Amino acid sequence: xxxxxxxxxxxxxxxxxxxxxxxxxxxxxxxxxxxxxxxxxxxxxxxxxxxxxxxxxxxxxxxxxxxxxxxxxxxxxxxxxxxxxxxxxxxxxxxxxxxxxxxxxxxxxxxxxxxxxxxxxxxxxxxxxxxxxxxxxxxxxxxxxxxxxxxxxxxxxxxxxxxxxxxxxxxxxxxxxxxxxxxxxxxxxxxxxxxxxxxxxxxxxxxxxxxxxxxxxxxxxxxxxxxxxxxxxxxxxxxxxxxxxxxxxxxxxxxxxxxxxxxxxxxxxxxxxxxxxxxxxxxxxxxxxxxxxxxxxxxxxxxxxxxxxxxxxxxxxxxxxxxxxxxxxxxxxxxxxxxxxxxxxxxxxxxxxxxxxxxxxxxxxxxxxxxxxxxxxxxxxxxxxxxxxxxxxxxxxxxxxxxxxxxxxxxxxxxxxxxxxxxxxxxxxxxxxxxxxxx
Length: 439
Known about the structure:
By secondary structure, the chain is α+β, with helices and mostly antiparallel strands.
């Protein structure tokens, strides 16, 4: 029921393109010979002209929308899931822009607008399709055959076609299967299809009787009605199906096959959407660009959060500096502070040292912390008035000798690190005596 409903919706959407003129009873007899399997243009004759509402007319003038019926055409009429061709019907002085092609029994209906001049019954014309668009459709249509065969390899013989839509942008393929495809199944499916593309399989078409095709177990399209003679499309030994659509000459023309979506249509029916050729390359470029943009956003957000965390840590340490003053040791007029902080990084230590130097007047400040890799980090600051007696880089060297480390810096500011964490407390405790020895 769901499959039938979806087919009805597709029919309804297609009919709305031209106010359902394809369902109008057109007063014209005969057939249209289709030559579009091997040609992109042909010379023909107008055997019917209609307004867009289906009313028969003798001619169509510039600006008028209508329907042109030819005795011969290269325009593929929408059927079997493949959309109708676009292009132009023209003569020396007139142009009719074809915006859709539909079937009406054995007739091909070219829907469109007179862009230049006028057209009358029995006029000789040239019909020419949009070749670039047709080629993109060919790629997608041939890819659906490879996809159909690939699904049976990956999922089993139950994975049969239950509908399709092929245009110049993408392909959509519905098939029987009870569960969503896993990432591994989708990758394997892409691998198999692209392998057949790289193999550049020759695409052969043969017209034979329906009975003969059935004996060869050729796969038929779901819901299609076939006459006594059918068209069999073969792609190497990999795929063999009944199909009236247009196809490429060899699978290598597809270039690339990329699945872009896999969803549920109804109970027991899944849908795959994919792109091929240049559209697949464009999809990859756009996806890559989106990924890079998103990655840059995430990295920028990460940087912003890290900066915010660092600022919060610094603010916390600065606010904590007042409590650190209680640990100050006075050596004459010099305030000496040597202590260890927890959960502090080098930036926080440096900011806290600068803050304490401003608060303590004449001062020597030594702050240390232990990092996550069990290494001690130290920053030493000395106020400007003491530099003739006490130098931060010399004090750093004295401490580093005790904790097995190294570092460097200027007379007013120095920093370093060591690995002997056990000796850190005693090294800090020795700072006051070292300062006293210098003054």
